[in-house]
Amino acid sequence: MQKARRVMPPSLMRWIPNRLIVKLMRRMMGFPNRDIATGKVATRHLSIPGPQGEIPVRIYTPEGVDLPILLYFHGGGWVGGSVDCVENIGRGIADRGGHIVVNVDYRLAPEHKFPAGLEDCYAAVEWAAQHASELGGDPTHLVVAGDSAGANFATVCCLLAHERGGPPISQQVLIYPGVDLSGRHDEEHGPQEGSGGMNLGSFMASVYVDRPEQLADPRCSPWLAKDVSFMPPALILTAEYCFIRDQGEAYAKKLAAEGVTTRVIRYNGLNHAFLDKVGVWDYADACIEDIADALGRH
Fold this sequence. Notes:
The structure is a single chain. This protein is of the alpha/beta class. It contains eleven helices and eight strands. It is globular and about 55 Å long. The N and C termini lie far apart (39 Å).
């Protein structure tokens, strides 16, 4: 990260058009990885109804009956990433954790600004609850999970389910979550060491939302939610050198302080998006095992 800042300092980044940054981000997303499933995991490609048209999903089904269902939302800074990038993550969780995993291909900004992608994810949660029996799953055991921006969507889906009287969510798995786009966490606690120049809020204000004040909406920044006491149990995974590590761990403390059963694992020596290297790095494989343990290896 230090070397990257010498080559491409934040002061220079300010002069690069956001559309070019988005294009570069999308090209950089993902990492060559491998399928770690050792059992039989069937893959299905479907399209499900969404708020503005069909939402493509991939469903990974291990052997078993009445299995819990886990909705997985990929990361990518709300502007990039794909179901392809997290295919082997989803298959690994399905295999190790014994869950049916629904990998959701939600709409991306800036073509589709807030709350388009979020509403796609929530529509997938509702669809999974309604069609659980058709999938061979248990409608009473619904889990949401995601990495980075996808983790933001996962926990906000819990907020929406509570507000809208939606399906009960039994657990949330948040992998290096981005939970504060407003910048208020850094204003109150100071920027995390090593994150200097990572002005996520100003970039997101220009590409993710129509108005900057929307970044303080708990649907964008769930760390600002006034009440999280109703939240389902949470597993929050952070990385030592992740530039949003502190806000993720602060969110864990917020949940725990309001009585939510919360477990945090910090992976030392690693950076943001390390799980993309599943099947390549032992650390990433161990993370899948930790998730499976938290899910109870149904």
